[in-house]
Amino acid sequence: IPYWSLCLSVMISDGCSNASCILAPCQYDSCYNVAEEQSLYSSQQQLSDNSQEKEGSYVSDLFACGNGYCVGYDKVCNLVDECGDGSDEEGCINHFKCDVTGNELIPITGKCDGTVDCQNSSDECNEDCGEEVINKLFLKVSAWIIGSLGLLLNSIVIIKNMIVIPSITSRIALTNCTLITIVSIGEFMIGCYLISVATIDVLYGETYCVRKYEWLISTRCIMLGICSTIGTHLSLVAMTVLSLYRLYIVSNLIVVKGIPRQYYIFTALLGLAVLVLAVAIAITPVLKTFEDYFINGVYYDDVPLFVGAPNKAKHIEIISEYYGRTVRTDDLSWRGVQALMSDLFTEDTNKPVRGTKLGFYGNSGVCLFKYFVTKDDPQYIYVWTVISLDFSCFLVIVVSYVAVTILVRRTSAAAHDKGSKNSTLQTKVTIMILTDALTWMPFLVICLLNFLMVIDGDSDMYTVFSIMILPLNSIINPLLCDDTITRAGGTIFSTVHDLLTRKVEGCADEYPMTNVNQNILNKQKDGVDHDSDIRHPNRY
Question: Model's pTM, two decimal places?
Answer without folding.
Answer: 0.75
